[in-house]
Amino acid sequence: MKMSTAFGTTLHTAPGQSESQGHQMLQRAAMVRQVAQGIFAYLPFGWRTVRKIEAVLRAEMERIGCQEISMPVVNPADLWKQSGRYTGIGPELARFADRRGRDMVLAMTHEEIVTSLARSEIGSYRDLPRMVFQLQTKFRDDARPRAGLLRVREFTMKDAYSFDRDEEGLARQYRAQYQAYFTIFKRCGVPIRAVLSDVGMMGGSMAHEFMYITPIGEDTLLLCDACGFAANREVATFRKPSTASEAVTVHHWEGGGKLVTAVLRADTELNETKLANLVHASGPRDITVVDDAVQNTGYKADIIGDITAARAGDPCPECGHALRTTRGVEAGNIFKLGTKYSADLGAVFVDADGERRPLIMGCYGIGVGRLLGCAAEEHHDDKGLRLPASIAPYHVHLALLDDINSEVGTLAQRYYDELWAHGIEVLLDDRTERPGVKFADADVIGLPLRLTLGKKGFAAGTAELRDRATGATTTVPLDNVVTEVRNRIAAMLTTLAAPITVDLPAELR
User: Fold this and answer.
1) What is the spatial order of strands in the sheet that 287-291 belongs to?
2) pTM confidence score
3) How many CB atoms lie within 10 A of CB 499?
4) DSSP 8-state secondary structure symbol assigned to residue 67
5) Domains annotated on the chain, with CATH
6) What pLDDT shows up at residue 310?
7) At what angle do helices 481-497 and 407-421 cross, to 10 degrees?
8) Which residues are CB-contacts of 487 (< 8 A; sequence separation ≥ 6)?
9) Is residue 73 within 8 Å of 105, Cβ to Cβ?
């Protein structure tokens, strides 16, 4: 690719305001443009990076036996009505009627469709286990899109779905996805922390989120540096005092058409997610929920359970060490769905005894654009992006400081052709611009290596190589340029692709 013909213009400053510095750099580097609130277009540089992220996702899903499919963005509402989510989800689910008056939705997730496919394609225990995945556009009419690509309304997801005959099979596929996620994020250069999380609207018995730790994250996490315990604050537990308290705080809460009275220790805070989960399972009647660390309150408890929010300094539930809090962005998630969808939509199989049983399901998602947003947040400085070689739009920025028709330009074209022939992706800046402009653009686009060719170096028989991540600059003999560039890029890619060992948390062992 040559800069003289590139579609998209680098910017000195990012348009608008975003709390994400990484997103500002994505705009300045001519990778993305906002079309509407929470809706973005990808320019060629950005789309190349998206395709590389998708290639990593495909490779790692296929490595663990996932088969790629494609499901429609537009879904018949009937399936969503069968699952209960048509009425259970609010205005973030886009609903409309087609020309024949049939209710339709724009899918924000694809559990209903994939379950209906499994219903028709899986009939016997001999057809199990199975895993499928897709890369598909989705729409969620989020009320609060923010931070660029980190919270949008239209987005592309990698969603995978597993089908098993029993919980043991689900546990195996869940672990395989858990481990694959660490490989995916490592290959894309995004450090993540897996935490226990609430199942939310997805339902099921267990969920983990893969969090990119950043001050601009929306989620509060509770972490233990001693034993590795990690959980979203929505579900985080802690060791409560051995002696129950009689001093209480009473909260009145309305949810699901009923009045809920919540009673907990006076020195603690209410966790509304925990409370909602307990209340949801209790039916429509008005109830009183008492925290399990309270006694002799005078309130008659309909439910006793954990409704207290964990805080920094509380004892870890696993080892007792003080918990600490941090903030993060959810870059991926996995759920043990169980039979939530298969039971509602009639997706059953015949087991070895001839009995019909609902399929045991899991689902596993990663947002492609959000992953790019996290990578940009992690890999930038005040001059621009510094994306890893595995997902950068190109590997090398070749800055030509002479006319393309000069001797130096002829050599630049030769390097360009030879490197591409060896699989090294080169962006050649052949524009008639000042060196300062070319260097500034090289910094903001942030390719892993900058190769500079100018008259002075050509006369001395050398070219300059600059590592964007470290800023280190070296002089290389002209005859060694292609070999040196190939070796450096190969080393970067090898490091990113190196296998890793994943320590499973206690709940998955």
Assistant:
1) 248-255, 258-265, 287-291, 303-305
2) 0.94
3) 6
4) E
5) 3-235+325-378 (3.30.930.10), 239-309 (no CATH), 394-496 (3.40.50.800)
6) 96
7) 40
8) none
9) no
